[in-house]
Structures
1.
Amino acid sequence: MSQAIAVDRKAWILLLLLSLVWGSSFILIKKALVVLHPVELACMRISISSLAFLPILLLNFKKVDLSKWPLFLVVGLAGSGIPAFLYAFAQQQVSSSMAGLLNSLTPIFTFILGILIFNDSFRLLKSIGVLVGFLGAALLVVMDKKAGFGGDLAAVMMIVFGTFCYGLSVNTVEHKLKGTGPLVISAASFFMIGPPAMIYLLSQGTIPAVLERPEAWKSLGAILILSLLGTVTASILFYGLVQRTSAVFGSTVAYLMPVMALAWGFVDGEAILFYHLIGLALILTGVYLIKKM
């Protein structure tokens, strides 16, 4: 009995750590953008993560099915590459709090794409969840625009499209890469998208140029933490959590991550208003209905 309680306690600790790490990604992007251009930020994030995953790839290279490289490319682009650019550009206009709230649309797009592309079964309750979630997102966008906090619609739609990409990546892993270990998937997918990002940084002389800017080390520190914690460590924590418990328990991070993002935004002086909480509640209600069996 005591062992079961200990395991349960460890699972909750892992869940809270993962929520904190992923929920901190948006404020770190905000801090990195003080000095870095969005393209520089995205390429650095991808490059650092790729280099960190390289040892894992080399140690597990025999487990990589090279015939599945198109799938690894899809996972790399949709799960990391494209969103890295979208969120970096969007957060020039959208607060880190709003980015974190809208990011909770990911499970909703995962459900929609599962039906439209991957032939998942249609369920009425889950469909209601989609409508409720989008209602919450619409409330956030409309009210934030009226209050003058939301930035332009194009920036908001970048984040929405980013969650669409995440949904495509999750479905690809679940339906097409079931026989491949999750860490191998992450390492192989970053191997597919890492080299172009590195080539860009080297060809443009980005690092020396950035180091000449005021407060460069603060932004570089933020992107380093974002890459090593928000991408690499978060992947290890998540897969460890799923192995210790279940995919259902691990997916509850979708409820806590936007709360963490909201808290970080508040600490950083961003305005948190009542409609933010209402919108968050609607989105998470939609996520709950979608995940409810």
2.
Amino acid sequence: MDGVLAINKPSGMTSHDVVQAVRRIVREKRVGHTGTLDPLATGLLVLCVGKATRIARYLEAGEKEYTAVMRLGVITDTQDSEGRILETRTYIPPVRESIIGIMERFTGSIMQEPPAFSAIKVSGVPSYKLARQGKAKPLAPRLVTISRIDLIEYDDPFIRLSVRCSKGVYIRTLCADIGNALGMGAHLTGLVRTRSGRFRLDNAVTLESLREAAASATVERALVSIDESLAEFPVATIDEAGAGKVVHGNSISWPEMQRVGQDALLRVHGPSGSLLAVARATAGILKPEVVFAKSNE
């Protein structure tokens, strides 16, 4: 069983919990996610099954969209509502225009310091474990991109917003930073991931519906093929001679370089139209990065 599953993750489960559940349901050990969601968060969790685990890095790189709710005036150690309250501040509620102005400061390419309660390893130890022991150290800021932040609803002390961003963005940190910039602090109280690359929450399945599909032997209907999952990559169709080389991991010349540009990723299709590999086009050469087909294409 090979393909990609879009799961609607419930609150209270870790991403690893969902992976383990799916492994049991589909009876496949090779299952992995393409970007974690905290236990508090709900929404889209994209999982790769079987051979599709080999394209996880490409799917993980896709742009993300979230809907978040933050609460002003309360600061927690985890930057969300599951943490310990460190401080409660009294404040004059900011006007909507001020909030929008502050949010605009966090759009574009910015440096964001990951939260102490994260899985980032410090000398081989996850930072959250050190944080629980009171030994957390500041983590190096990372360059991330936030394409857009929209204020959806404001009813003090709660702000509902939508965020479109690159991978690696911590939404709870973004909310905490916005709260600090406003002068009263804030923390995340709710988070829903609505999109990851080409996958959307509207098309995701619940674990319960996946169990029902497994019981009726229709799980494969929920799977998106590897080829379709990479639909944003252009297609390079090659002849039998080229296919014979690509399926063995060998590079081939490709004269259509100008069609996609330097260093582009492509889906390589054989004469029959089947997916052979994901390759990178460089200087007129197709260099396979992941090969799927066998030599009998």
